[in-house]
Amino acid sequence: MDCKTASILMMEYIDGEIKELDKIELFKHLESCKDCNEAFLLLSESIDMIESMDEIEPPENIETLVMSSIDVTKYNVKVRIKKSIIISSILVVFMILGGYLFNIILNNSLSLKELLIVNIVKLVNFTVLTLPNILAFIEQNLALVLSGTFIILSGLFASTLFIAVAEVYLFKKFKFNFRRS
Amino acid sequence: MNEQDIEIVNKCLSGDGDSFEKLVTKYKKKIYNIAYRYTGNSEDALDVTQEVFIKAYNSLKQYDPKYKFSSWILKITTNYCLDLKKKKKLTTVELNIDLDNNETSTSAEDIYIHKENKELIANSINSLPDEYKILIILFHNQNHSYQEISEMLQLPLTKVKNRLYRARNMLKDALKNTRREESKWTAKQLQY
Ligand SMILES: [Zn+2]
Description:
The complex is a heterodimer of chains A (181) and B (192).
Chain A: H1 3-15, H2 20-32, H3 34-51, H4 62-69, H5 77-106, H6 112-140, H7 142-174
Chain B: H1 5-13, H2 20-39, H3 42-58, H4 69-87, H5 108-127, H6 130-141, H7 146-153, H8 157-191
The complex binds zinc ion (ZN).
Zinc ion binds at residues 3, 6, 29, 33, 35-36 of chain A.
């Protein structure tokens, strides 16, 4: 037997897959070949060492660490729809406010600083005078209020619809059956 | 306690994310041990374990119930380990070898030799190239079969076998070299 074959047989021996006859041949070779003998001893020793390595106990707080870094509502459709409604309403409000401010800035010859002061004063007045003024404001700007409400509502509707469609599409795509038990 | 993995997965996917904790409890030890043997230190091992669970949770929809959940999460673990070097430099300086001395033979010398061997083998495993290291850990330390490993790493069976043979030979050579260094060292010490 040559050393190359011996080397392969050693591996089969370690795997526990060696044939009885091959085993006898291998040990015969190991007796006569010093190099292979040394290799075999080292090999079995290192395998023994790995297999006798202790299992290690992981730190106890792994659960807490993991659970605090995942979004437990990730697959909760109800919570996700609620969340996206809130986010999209905030977005819509900001867009309207932004447009409104942009409009004021464009149509004014005042500087930004003056504009800010004027608007703060307006806001304070508005708050102090409260309800009658709000009503008056709505009366005077009926068209604006109505269109604003309409824009907000349709924005909400559109985003909810979009999310619902997206969810349905994703479920279909991954073909996941929730009722499986 | 005997809730099936697939039931827990389905619970998570229908909105009860808190049940994922049961899967963490069930698989943390195995994943942590693979990660520990692979990275060689407890800090990185904890990082890997955490990342693997987060990854698994976030891609839970991709889990195919045809296969065992354990195979799936181990596949994520091995992939993550193999990608690790690309992501960041591992701290390979220190090896925390824990010495639990609950064995019965407790002569000081025995413990010393035991510790030496542990460090020696941990060092040798650490010195292997990544693809070989993971094979040694999975086959000899975690007792997975060739078939399981071939599925986990998505490698043909013959390739797994050949690589493992080569990995063992590398390990053997590493052991041989350390032994040689050691005897040189003691010879030197004896001279003084
Ligand atoms: Zn030989």
